[in-house]
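Bench log, entry 3. Co-assembly request; chain sequences pasted below exactly as received.
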Amino acid sequence: MNRVIDWNEIFQLVLNATGETLYMVVLAGFFTLLIGLPLGVLLFISRSGGLYPMPRLNKGLGGLVNLGRSLPFVVMLIALIPLTRLVVGTTLGSTAAVVPITIGAFPFFARIVENALDEVDKGRIEAILAMGGDIWHVIFKVLLPEALPALLAGITLTLVMLIGFSSMAGVIGGGGLGDLAIRYGYQRFNNQVMVATVVVLVILVQSVQSLGDRLVRSLAHRR
Amino acid sequence: MIIVEQLSKTYAPEQAPALDQVSLSIPDGAIYGILGRSGAGKSTLLRCLNLLERPSSGRILLDGKDLTALSDIELRQQRQRIGMIFQGFNLLHSRNVFDNIAVPLEIARVTKTQRYSRVRELLDLVGLSDKAQAFPSQLSGGQKQRVGIARALAARPAYLLSDEATSALDPETTHSILELLRDINRQLGLTIVLITHELDVVKSICDHAASLAHGRLVEAGPIAQLLANPDSILGRSLLPGYSTPLGNDTRTLELSFFDNLLATPVLNELVVQQGVEVNLLASGVESIGGRRVGRLRVAFWQSGDELKLTRVVAFLKQRGVRVERS
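Structure output for the full assembly:
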């Protein structure tokens, strides 16, 4: 059936779906940062020859991170259903989708953090150690502030990826723009909804990207 | 006082050691220059002095405390007494000049008001009071090194290690940074250990020098002694020099006069008493390690007779002149 729906209805649908997408992206983004940032720091400092070498831990964490990154997201979405139930008590809906989205994204972000920290000039780390600083001083006075532009660029990249992940959340009833596009645009051949979804997604991604770029530029400007 | 005992550092067992049984003592208040080509091990030696590099064997005694035997916390406390400046400056680009200088004070948990007045003081000392809010990328090389020096001095260390601090700077800036280091040494009584591959740096500010080659200590001591010792290669390299070598012209000697001897008519006495004729080929006077040194290249003749150069040499040596022959 190809029922004609009016623009008001489309507006409501797209608005709801945008809300769901933002909800998933913001929440999953928050947890991705929360887990990925310390994990990235840990990966960096625990390298052999690093600031606080723990080769075994480093290898183990590195392996887990690679495992997390090697699974296609749709597969992970399904495979993680038992874990999702354990964490949020349900396997359906936007909140349930946050769990697999976070787990799909934080290993990626952790690697970005690790690489960003690796770009920090080793001499600056040495200078802090030479003046009697400990590893916490190195992390909070050198590594994170000096890598901040690269970290912000990485956060932007990760947020855009999260928007992509969230569009697959429909598989487990997570809703969002991707779900709307599949249900209305693809399964019901409703081109109006399809176009509206695409427009909103493009605007969303562009805004995140240009906001991130602007932040990075404003920081790089005075450095 | 820093005493280095039998220090060795090996990076990989199949490689030659970067440092091989180096022993040194660095007296308080000295400006101690360590010379060597790149790869001679001087950077490794300097970085062992604050244990940025852990030696494979040997000890480093800082005012009697063996750094290699300290716990992490004790080591960090000792490091606060040793400032360090670098060839690449190593300033934090996320902080402005003021906040860069404040880093060691933050680490030492100095209160904010005390930090403020101390940083102001240091900005004044290095002549950058108007640049407090500037970021490192907005500064010239010389200004960056001044910030580096101010930062190194912030926690009032007793020692300052300088890792090729002027090697990335142009000659004029190098000169002004060296002046600053000398002023600091005099005003604050700070002991400075610097490594460099430039003889001029050692000549202009050091009072002690050591030379390293292939990880081994070749010579070390007060510059005055090195200069006076005719067998010292380091002493010789510090003297005012000429680009052309002496060759095997047996009539020609190179003579070095120190301090008061410069005002004594030694050559005139030689001519009158020994009856030799002299021709001055080249000469120069410099101030090295706080001593005035004149160096001459002189050719000799003896009218009629055959030249008895050994007698000439003996006469000059007896008068305190440092003599080199081809």
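Chain A has nine helices and no strands. The CA atoms of residues 68 and 107 of chain A lie 6 Å apart.
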